[in-house]
Design goal:
Helix content is 20%, strand content 33%. By secondary structure, it is an alpha+beta fold.
Length: 606
């Protein structure tokens, strides 16, 4: 039993979960009370191997039988929740495609932490051998985070050139090294002339790391200098630097005092390239477990990082959170295939303008020993539509179309239509959106939609939307508004027409309108004026019941004073058709505040 236990543990500690699973299965089968933790590690191996249901069963058995209060008993509920989460994710459509990077980037030992220098050059950290080892040494296991110093594998920075997802011609970055140290996991300043990198060594099996700075002068990188105690605290680790594209923040991972436990994410505010005092990113982001490898998009206020302290697919998983270093939204697991049962870490975007559209990650999902570089690309989901003029039925060139996320209350995109009148936006599945179409002297319209259907298809076409032209003080007749004979009581069918006015006023929160009623010439002026005033007021009262602010509405009865057709024929006989046209209800725009729409205005009508 002891031999089986040692075999199982050895394979697990060298990240060979396939062989470890086999031996732990035997060990668990012995039911030997001398190995009470065996079932936990068996479940861990099953989970690493993607066998979530079996892992879940074993974790539950472990929790029922294990009575010791230790790190394993504390961790087990999170592992159970993660297995349940992984099983629930299994049926979901993936949001990304993922492909291992080709060429010679993934040769040798571990290859990870890619940084995009330009569209044809990738910089990354690699633990390939400094001198090609003998064939017998080539099979030596390599620690996936940092190669053991007893092997010929030393971590350093490399570049590779290519395009798409194939990069060749790997060569070391010409940057001074330090004897006995590994270096890599780097970040560049916005001007590309300051390189922040991690250097680490192992003493008595304990990793010690710190962040250094190298400056490029005349095309040559200087000897890296350790950053001060704002970033590095003696006796603790700081690593995995990231500088935001606006140069305002330096983010990094560290187990320095003042954190939640293990490695936390920290940040420094940069002043003229010098980092200020480090601040912990708080309990909204950090857990008592590992938080590592931050990436932050300053334009979208979006943080991507890896953690094993939250419910995920296993190991380190990618999470995203929106925030501005003051507050952060609850981190959301980024799902498969970005995440796997193993470690997924070091997100980098291909294009800073579209941070989550495409990029590179590192993962050991396809390797026993080591991290490898993969490219990712978001599966594009497109929503489109056509905007026309209600009167001419022609495409409405020049209209502005705004896309908003109605749950997060955020403007996502804004375009001006060309002569085709068509808009097209890239959207995410399972989100709720609002599209606002607006143009000067046209009534703004909004449509709401969710993208549940986009989980199964790549595009959806919204119904054609028409915008109605208006002029200030020019009346627009509302057809099919009816009242009881000789009274101001609205008939039910009239309310349906007035509901369209409610929609228009909700979509145009800055407009003030006059509702007006007109009569034919039958009856006295006094009676007709009173009747038309009451009818206009009935319309206004109905709009108020639908939530329209009374201050935006004016009721006006014009009686028979403004006919639009003759009440009688030239021979003085009655003209019922003309009188019917004169018995009408209209509205007109009185004024529109000259003020730019803001995201808050747009959201106010939701």
């Amino acid at each position: 039993h002891q031999v089986v236990a040692r075999l199982a543990e050895s394979y697990r500690l060298f990240y060979d979960y396939g062989n470890a699973e086999t031996w732990y299965a035997q060990l668990v089968g012995f039911n030997n009370t001398a190995f009470p933790q065996a079932r936990y590690w068996y479940a861990i191996c099953l989970r690493y191997n993607g066998k979530y249901q079996q892992a879940l069963d074993e974790f539950n058995k472990f929790r029922q039988s294990y009575t010791t209060a230790d790190e394993l008993s504390v961790r087990a509920p999170l592992e159970i929740a993660s297995c349940e989460f992984a099983l629930s994710e299994a049926g979901k459509e993936p949001r990304y495609t993922i492909e291992k990077t080709g060429g010679n980037v993934n040769e040798g030992g571990a290859n990870y932490a890619p940084v995009i220098l330009d569209e044809h050059t990738l910089m990354y950290t690699s633990s390939r051998a400094e001198n090609p080892p003998l064939p017998t040494a080539a099979k030596q296991p390599v620690n996936k985070k940092a190669a053991k110093n007893t092997t010929p594998y030393v971590n350093d920075l490399y570049t590779a050139s290519g395009n798409s997802n194939t990069f060749d011609n790997s060569q070391k970055v010409k940057i001074p090294t330090a004897k006995g140290y590994d270096q890599g996991v780097s970040a560049l300043s916005p001007d590309r002339n300051s390189l922040y990198l991690t250097r680490w060594t192992k003493k008595d099996g304990v990793k010690q790391s710190a962040i250094y700075l190298s400056v490029r002068q005349n095309g040559v990188w200087s000897e890296p200098k350790i950053l001060g105690d704002n970033v590095n605290v003696a006796g603790y680790n700081s690593m995995q630097p990231y500088v935001t594209t606006d140069g305002k923040y330096l983010l990094f991972a560290s187990n320095r005092p003042g954190g939640m436990g293990k490695n936390d994410l920290w940040y420094c505010i940069m002043t003229n390239g010098t980092p200020g005092g480090a601040r912990n990113m708080g309990t909204a982001i950090n857990t008592k477990d590992e938080e590592e490898a931050p990436f932050y998009d300053a334009e979208k206020n979006l943080l991507v990082f890896s953690t094993d302290g939250r419910v995920g697919l296993g190991g380190l998983d990618f999470f995203q959170s929106e925030g501005d270093f003051g507050t952060w939204s609850v981190p959301v697991n980024m799902g498969k295939p970005l995440n796997s049962p193993k470690d997924d870490i070091y997100y980098t975007a291909l294009d800073s303008k579209h941070p989550l559209a495409a990029g590179f990650i590192s993962s050991d999902r396809e390797s026993i020993c080591c991290l490898e570089v993969f490219s990712i690309s978001r599966i594009r989901k497109i929503v489109s539509g056509l905007i026309i003029d209600c009167d001419t039925q022609q495409p409405l060139q020049g209209a502005t179309i705004t896309l908003l996320d109605t749950v997060r209350r955020k403007t996502l995109n804004k375009i001006t239509l060309d002569e085709t009148g068509r808009y097209s936006f890239e959207v995410d599945p399972q989100r709720f959106y609002k599209i606002i179409a607006e143009k000067d002297n046209y009534f703004t319209k909004a449509i709401y939609f969710n993208t549940d259907t986009l989980a199964r298809i790549d595009s959806m076409n919204n119904p054609t939307l028409c915008l109605k032209h208006y002029e200030i003080e020019k009346p627009i007749v509302l057809n099919n508004i009816y009242y009881d004979f000789g009274k101001a009581t609205l008939r039910e069918e009239s309310k349906t027409v007035l509901d369209t006015v409610v929609d228009m006023l909700n979509d145009n929160p800055k407009l003030t309108i006059e509702m007006s009623a007109h009569t034919d010439s039958v009856g006295s002026d006094k009676f007709n004026n009173k009747l038309s005033q009451e009818r206009a007021q009935s319309c206004v009262d109905y709009l108020i019941t639908k939530g329209i602010d009374a201050e935006r509405l004016v009721a006006k009865g014009y009686g028979e004073s403004r006919p639009i057709a003759p009440n009688s024929l030239p021979n003085h006989k009655d003209n019922p058709e003309g009188r019917q046209l004169n018995r009408r209800t209209e509205f007109k725009v009185l004024k529109k505040q000259v003020q730019a729409r803001t995201a808050a205005d747009n959201n106010s009508s939701q």
